[in-house]
UniProtKB/TrEMBL annotation:
The keyword Transcription does not apply. This is LisH domain-containing protein ARMC9. Residues 551-572 have a biased composition (Acidic residues). GO terms for biological process: cilium assembly. It comes from Bos taurus. It is found in: Cytoplasm, Cytoskeleton, Cilium basal body; Cytoplasm, Cytoskeleton, Microtubule organizing center, Centrosome, Centriole. InterPro entries: ARM-like, ARM-type_fold, ARMC9, ARMC9_ARM_dom, ARMC9_CTLH-like_dom, ARMC9_LisH, LisH. Residues 58-188 form the ARMC9 CTLH-like domain.
Length: 634
């Protein structure tokens, strides 16, 4: 009690300061009244007003310069009193400053009674152009600001429909209100009450540090797993290479002794340098009796060819696996699902808890990454319906939704599953979440747009889009300027495809789609520019261009490339880690679920992958982001 009395004045002063800061006006009046009645003194050190007279004068001068159009005074005050980290790093401040430059650039056009002074107007326009080329260039990829980069080059902006809103009084009033709110927020934040500072310093910052360290630990574990997999692959290749090298050395020693090396033997050694996937075709197509063939093949083995090995893994007791997946504990189920995903063996999937649900989604996504997995799961639409339901309902776990979405996107490589997804209205769900792309993770955004494009390549998908043409076109045009450039090919492909529908073309012309597209031509790279030119050509076409609308009435699978695309994100942010003495991964499978060896290591002969997509036209075939990046379109 003695300690409280000794510091009572300071404590009461802190309370008063916070109530004043938080604008609890009635509470503050009651508090001061009661302190006065009880004779409680308030500390003078904390009783000063939070409103700094200098900051108030600055705000008045800044707003006066805004109203009078004094550009030089305004931006001098702006740079002197607004800290550089806020001006350069805060998105709200950057956007506000952009609009303020527009305000001063067109001020004379709005407020001159007659013809504005040409010299003064040219100076303002030149100042605005300099801003666009320097600091303002950071917003050039944002759809909201892109049209304004043409403002300095328009002879009469007041008559241009794109800038009509700028010359209305309401636009200036709204901008001034935004400026006032920004100033109030900034100077309020800069005078943080001491009570709040003490709270942050005493524990809150520690929590943030712990959370940051945990995230770093998770990321380090993920990288460690990736590097371990790479190490295992390199080690296996090393052992194979050592074996072949030993045989070649023995052969060289034999030739010194006068023994002959047959072409057949040389053929068998060279073929062992290649994966099982290429073994059969090489054995029948290469003539090893021709001079120089061996050295040529050895050089070719050094080229970065995408190979696929079939590992010789122990078979498992699947009946016991099924039983434990149904009746086992949630932790055992999660470890089994994790181990099966790492091994890529299709199994029955059951999930109840949140953790098991996530690992089920990871496993299905892994299956969908394999051509054989997609072929197996496509036999029934039951798995597809369950995934669609999980996608729309999952809101607790981002990783679960990402993996469900990834699996559905890979399912969209197969035409029967495309048809089912279109009929189930998945296009409408995708359009709805893509209205706010900044709220999505990079994975969710990329796979959502890629899935939308695959569905829009079908006539049924285009007709679905025609029902909400305005919304679809707005979402896609907004995505054109998104900072994630990985989605651009899919956005272009979707736009190009749906514009083959006359009603959508008409809607696009009405909303000025061509002007929007031409803005991106100025900022895009060569490939992006070529694709947009194709889209504009499609937009202005009176009849369908040749080859645009393909026949998709049949449900055969001839258009799917037979390749696998396993992505690193499948192992992202693992939730479970084995404790001391707890089995996981291959050890769990081979220790508790070992069966009879049935895998002979023979590879099923696969179809050849397609030609790498790199043409100037937008995508016209279904793809998945993993396969598209590696150069193998589906």
């Amino acid at each position: 009690m003695v300690d409280v009395l000794a510091h009572e004045s300071e404590l009461l002063g802190l309370v008063k300061e916070y109530l004043d800061f938080a604008e609890f006006e009635d509470t503050l009046k009651t508090f001061l009244k009661e302190c006065k009645i009880k004779g409680k003194p308030l500390s003078k050190s904390t009783c000063g007003s939070l409103r700094d007279p200098k900051s108030l004068k600055f705000q008045r001068d800044l707003l006066a310069a805004f109203d009078s159009g004094d550009q030089k005074v305004f931006f001098r005050l702006w740079e002197e009193h607004i800290p550089r980290p806020i001006r350069d790093g805060d998105s709200l401040a950057q956007k506000l400053e952009f609009y303020l430059h527009i305000h001063f650039a067109i001020y004379l056009l709005k407020h001159s009674a007659g013809r504005p002074d040409k010299e003064d107007l040219d100076e303002r326009i030149s100042y605005f152009k300099t801003f666009l080329e320097t600091k303002g260039a950071a917003l050039s990829q944002t759809t909201e600001f892109l049209p304004f980069y043409a403002l300095p080059f328009v002879p009469n902006p007041m008559a241009h429909p794109s800038f009509k809103e700028l010359f209305q009084d309401s636009w200036t009033s709204e901008l001034k209100l935004k400026l006032e709110k920004f100033l109030a927020l900034m100077f309020k934040a800069s005078n943080t009450p001491k009570l709040l500072t003490l709270y942050k310093e005493n524990g809150q910052s520690n929590k943030d540090v712990l959370q940051q360290l945990h995230q770093q630990l998770v990321e380090a574990e993920r990288r460690s797993m990736t590097y371990l997999k790479r190490y295992n692959r390199i080690q296996a290749d090393y052992h194979n290479l050592i074996g072949v090298t030993a045989e070649l050395v023995d052969s060289l020693e034999a030739t010194v002794s006068g023994k002959m090396i047959t072409p057949e033997y040389l053929q068998s050694v060279c073929v062992r340098l290649f994966s099982n996937q290429m073994r059969q075709s090489l054995a029948h197509s290469v003539d090893f009796t021709r001079p120089g063939t061996a050295s040529t093949m050895l050089r070719a083995s050094l080229a970065p060819v995408k190979l696929k090995d079939v590992p010789l893994l122990p078979s498992l007791d699947y009946e016991k696996l099924k039983k434990d997946l149904i009746l086992g504990s949630d932790r055992l189920k999660a470890f089994l699902l994790q181990a099966l995903r790492w091994r890529s063996v299709l199994q029955l999937l059951q999930s109840k808890s949140e953790v098991v649900r996530q690992y089920t989604a990871r496993l299905i996504n892994a299956f969908a990454s394999l051509a054989e997995g997609r072929r197996y799961l496509a036999q029934s639409t039951k798995v597809l319906r369950m995934l669609e339901e999980r996608l729309k309902e999952e809101d607790k776990d981002v990783i679960t939704r990402e993996n469900v979405l990834g699996a559905l996107q890979k399912f969209s490589l197969r035409r029967p599953l495309q048809t089912a997804m279109i009929q189930d209205g998945l296009i409408f769900w995708l359009i709805d979440i893509l209205k706010e792309p900044d709220c999505l993770s990079d994975y969710t955004l990329e796979y959502s747009v890629a899935l939308l494009m695959n569905l829009c390549l079908r006539s049924a998908g285009k007709n679905m889009c025609a029902k909400v043409a305005g919304l679809v076109l707005k979402v896609l045009s907004d995505l054109l300027g998104h900072e994630n450039h990985e989605i651009q090919p899919y956005v272009n492909g979707a736009l190009y495809s749906i514009l083959s529908i006359p009603s959508i073309r008409e809607e696009a012309r009405a909303m000025g789609m061509e002007d929007i597209l031409r803005c991106f031509i100025k900022e895009g790279n060569a490939e992006m520019i070529r694709q947009i030119e194709f889209i504009i050509k499609q937009l202005n076409a009176e009849e369908l261009l040749d080859g645009v609308l393909e026949s998709d009435d049949d449900e055969d699978e001839d258009d799917e490339e037979d390749h696998d695309t396993m992505e690193a994100d499948l192992d992202k942010d693992e939730l479970i880690q084995p404790q001391l003495g707890e089995l996981s991964g291959e050890k769990l499978l081979t220790t508790e679920y070992l069966g009879i060896m049935t895998n002979t290591g023979k590879a099923r002969r696969r179809g050849t992958a397609g030609v790498q997509w790199g043409g100037p036209e937008p995508l016209r075939r279904p793809v998945t982001p993993g396969g598209h990046r590696t150069g193998y379109p589906a």
